[in-house]
What does this fold into?
Amino acid sequence: MFTDHIDIKTRRAFAGFTLDVEQKIPLAGCTAVFGPSGAGKSTLLRLIAGFLRPDAGRIAFGEALWCDIGAGLHVPAHRRPIGTVFQDGRLFPHLTVEQNLFYADKRSDAGEAKYSRADIVAAFDLKPILDRRPVTLSGGERQRVALARTMLTRPKLLLLDEPLSALDRGRKAEIIPYLDNLAGKFGAPVIYVSHNVDEIVRIADQTVILKSGRVEATGATAEILNAYGVGTDADAFESGAVLTGSVIAHDEAYRLTRVALGDGVISLPINKQKPVGEAVNIRIDARNVAIATAAPSNISIRNVLPATITAMNRRPDSPFVDIILRVGDAILQAQITTAASDDLALASGQSVYALVKTASFEI
Amino acid sequence: MTLPDLSALWLTFRLAFLVTLILLIIGTPLAWWLANTKTRLKPVVEAIVALPLVLPPTVLGFYLLIVFNPNAAIGGFWLSVTGDTLAFSFAGLVIASVVYSLPFAIQPLQSAFESVAEGVMEAAASLRASPLDAFFTVAAPLSVRGFLTAAVLSFAHTLGEFGVVLMVGGAIPGETRVVSIAIYEQVETLRYGEAHALSLILLAFSFAVLMFVYVFNRRHRVHVH
It folds into this structure.
């Protein structure tokens, strides 16, 4: 498949903060823009969408030029073939769900419609709520309508600005399968802004890490998250690691999905969205990893992975030590007490077993 | 009580209707601009718009008279185009009333537009709606109450206007003799019966309109989450 890029070179100064980004993002699959709050993620999205005019720079979408400040060009937001989904949905309160969808459908380029309004209503399961007003919808329903409405503009690029952050955990799990659909089923490339590692690991193929208005790193999601912040730098984000495994089976009876990881196999809550053989990213929080020096028996934890300790970082003024483990080619991180570590006489280079509870996997 | 002065009544309603229409047409873009502009001139424009609220109608009328003078630019232009003077004419009355009632149209519209969240307008743009399209399909429907309040206040305020009319319009029957002037003259000449008839009609009308507005506003609350 021919993959194009959106070529972003943009600078915008605010009081006390400057966003300065130069980045190519492939127009295929899902790219996450990740970073702590205040890193400029939403600003970057607003510059791409055209809601904000950069002080300098150029944004080219494949062949099309959206912005070239040097040449005095700035295509207004409504003329860019972008679909934006906002954190709070931003449905029109004076219209019903159906009218909200119609609003987008009516204004989209009908000639390029690869799918109809009925297709979208079906794909997002909106039939039962078509006549409702936005104010009567739950947070999850609202985001589903917002996603559907945006898809009806037939966007060539989707910008999602923390679309799950206003939802509780249960609602998130409800929306994520629909997000998986966007790049796959509807073929629209996605730029996904979030500060939540779990969401990104689950959804994004590529990740761009943004820090203080600048791109810190960019690459394949698991790789980049482990290299920057999540895996090693305990201060940056929640400690933990992202591992890539491949699905080997779905166990219907026990409602589990088995994933091969290094020399071991781990079990996750069943997720049939991912077919057997497909690679999956799994984020494992350091607090959910325990260490044993011998293969344990008589224990409820079934995810036992042979591992090697590669580093031990004692946290000053804290009862904990961060232990970096190698599992096959991947890095795993465990947070245990220094007392336990000393008791087991753990040391760098030692072969151990890493234990992870299935119930600790969020999505 | 005798038969009311129907020609004064008819003239007044024609005036108020026309003024309301003009105010909604010129007030909407002005209020939208005021609600969205980031220019430092905003307070200046806001103060000018609000002037008729505090200025004695006679002062306003006095300045308008000067502007309407055929030797002045505006008055002269009007005379050359229409062959008529602005002072002591219906057209002059309309212009004077538009100026006099301007804040009553602008202020409710501006506050309605200001409460239309910027985010919703961005959402409209993200759905390919041009700014004008988004105004008519999103901002305006969300500001229904602002439009209604602006229309009713403009209409009612023009209906009750007295000082400015006296200054720039006088009391030419069928041309500038509006209800408030008619009542004044009737009272001056001790024709209390006629004054009663006109006053009662105005009282009943004003009450009915305000009732309608309050009832409408109760029922038609647009829900914004």
About this structure: The first helix of chain A runs from residue 41 to 49. The interface with chain B takes residues 49-51, 76-79, 82-84, 86, 88, 90-94, 103-104, 107-108, 133-135, 149-150, 153 of chain A (CB under 8 Å). The mean pLDDT of chain A is 85.
